[in-house]
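WARN retry 2 of 3 for item q-0093 after timeout on previous attempt; input resubmitted unchanged.
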Amino acid sequence: MSSPTSAAVHLILTTELVPALRAVVDELGGDAPDSLVHARPTTVAAVHPTNSAAAIVHHLCGVLTSWGAACLGGEQISRDRESEFDYDGPVLPELDRLAALADRLPAWSAAACERGTLADPTGTAFPVERARAAGTLTMEWVLAHILHDVATHLGHLEVTRDVLMTDRTR
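OK item q-0093 returned
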């Protein structure tokens, strides 16, 4: 059985955040030849490097896989977080993958409830052992973290779009 928090996070992800991510990617041209989804507002060598829209979406798939499938679901996954930001493949399949991962959230939460424990997320920079020792690594925290990460990166994606679209019209 999934928790009410899990159901709420699932609803927000699937009805608001993932569709908003898809809308921004569509505005950037999706996977069309003249698309801006692989453009970066600043270069990798910049003082403050930024990510492409495709890399942001790909990274969010990593976030849901790490915190959802691994931490909540207890699944064995492999994740190379750093390489996510170099992603240059098609973005529309990644959006579909993100939507499919979001749809699995209730089952992953139910698995965590059934086990009575959380597994370690894979490939994350978060200090898991410190959080476990402090008692702050809970299912509710993980769900909030997923929601926070997706919402934050939606904001990054919107700023990326705004900068790239402004540059294109100049």
